[in-house]
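REVIEWER CHECKLIST
Item 1: Sequence provided? yes
Item 2: Single chain? yes
Item 3: Sequence as submitted:
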Amino acid sequence: MSTERLYSLRMRAAQGGAHEEGGLHISGGEKLGVEEEIETLVGRLLDKALHHSRGTADFINLVIERVDASNCSVLSPLTVSTYKVSDYRAGRQKAVTQLRELSVSETAIMNAFNILSSAQNIRGAILLDSQSGERLDTRGDRGVRVSRMDWDQEQYASWIRRHPQFDSPRIAEALALATKVVHAQGTVAELCWSDDPDYVTGYVASMTKGYCRITHLKEEGDLSGGRVFFVSPGTSISGYVEYLERSLVWIG
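Item 4: Structure as written out by the authors:
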């Protein structure tokens, strides 16, 4: 895709008022596209906000911003694997095992699961020190939002032809985000499961293991969820967050 006149589109939606006023987080979305694609991309983001399993949004914030395409990096998507488990207990044990193998401490793992199991209104990621388990960001329920990444559509079409079993907008979005996150200097791993009540699959992502889908990380109907990034001790958090929020990344 040509990166001339590139635009970043970012959406967040809530029910019961704006997030800052205590509204329940419904959904968010990230897109990159050229000027001719903006109308189509806006439509997709609005559809996501207005037709979501967590409810119908009555607050939608949409930002469209022209960005400097000359600073755009291109990253290959992480390899994808799927672990089928019988229930969320088995799924969480699988995630714990993977995180241990990535040298994340028991304390950090426990803290991450406690956060995600109780979180129902966090709209960004939580940053945890991979050894001490200490929270490294100071964003509260806002968390850190990973922005300005998307698939190159020609490359995505090619990828789907090779991996038709993963042809899903949900997987495409999550894989793009995880790919950007694990390439951040300081990332050890990501643990994520959706706060959508009807979607129970989650994942552990890392540079060495790739994007590892686990078919059950919570019970159906559960509104809890979110994402935790395990970060190496001594990482510059300001630089880490700057990369996640501001750097431009094409996946392809």
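Item 5: Key structural point noted by reviewer: Helices lie at 38-50, 88-101, 106-118, 153-162, 169-182, 237-246.
Item 6: Recommendation: ____
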